[in-house]
Structures are given as C-alpha cells and as structure tokens.
Amino acid sequence: MYYLFVFSLGFFFSFIGSIPPGTLNVTILQLALQEKIEVAKRFALAVAIVEYPYAWIGVQFESWLSSSPMVVQNFQLIAAIVMTSLGVFNLLPSKPPTGFAKKFSESGFRRGLALSLLNPMAIPYWMGFTAYLKAQGWISLSTPGLLHSYVLGTSVGALALLSLVIRFARKVAPYIQGNFLVRTIPGLVLLVLGLYAFARYFFKF
Question: Is 141 part of any domain?
C-alpha cells in the first residue's frame, strides 16, 4: 500500500505541475486543435518519458544535498523556502513558446523528446517537492522500489494531464490559454504548502 501512496504523491504533484501554460502543453494543445491527434499523443508520450529521468535526477540531487549536516539541521526551513519560491515562480506570467519550439510543433515523438530535454525545469521542481515531502514526514524513499514508484508516478501524472488536454482540447483551450484561475492554481497550492512549512518550522506544531 505504501508503494501506491508514494506513486500517488508523485502522480498528483506532477499532474498539477503540468497545468500552467508552457511550451510543452501549449504545443500539444495546438496539435490537438489542429486534429493531429496521433502526433499529439506521441508528443505527450515523449514528454512523460523524459519526466522520469528528470524526476529521478531531482530526487538524487535532493538526497545529496540532504546529506549535508547544515542542510539536515535546517531541513524544514530550507524546504519551506524552496516550496514558497516555487509557488511564487509559478504565479509569475509564463513566457509564450519560443520560435524554436514553434519549429518543432508539427512533429511527434522525437520533437517532444527534444523539447522536453531542453526544458529541464522538472529537476529543480522535483528537488523542491521531494525535500518538502520528506521534511513534513509525508514520504520515505528509502528503497529503490519506493524511489521508482515515486518517479513513475511523476511520469504517469504528466502523461495523464497531457492526455486530458488532447482528449478535451476544444473544451480546455479557453482555460489553458486565458483562464487566470487555472493558470494560478498550481502556484497557489505550492505557496500554501510553503507557508504551512514555515508555520511548522517557527511554531513547532
């Protein structure tokens, strides 16, 4: 059951983290609106595949940093700062897809792979989330099985969100492209979690 719980945490935070408009999900939305469904599906699969190693690297970096005595002593505070910073970053206006991204928007798997590899924000994202979840005592990745369950959840979560975008492209397009609430929900969730961690650090509850 704990493996499923760890998987679910990775899935949930990957799902909400994929909501804000960005190069990858906007490109997939454009492909779906153009009725290039098979191309969009291959693109989404490539994105999900790259999410796996990027999340794994993020977890490894987090484990390396948390082995430092200074980090261990201030783990709760560091997790709070990182989570709050991620929340603020997510609330900032997103940049539109670059000209390079647009050049790749007509293709599928290989293009999705290239754009995902050139978009490595998943690494600091998963460093921050993993540090936060550990600091709150909500997760343990003490075995390879738990680690890979968590990382697999991140990959499946990204694929699930992108698949929904493809499936309901015409219905979700107005929300992804211009809805303020949808764009800000992930950032607000991160901000609330960061403030909660600050409260736990300073008030020791």
Answer: yes
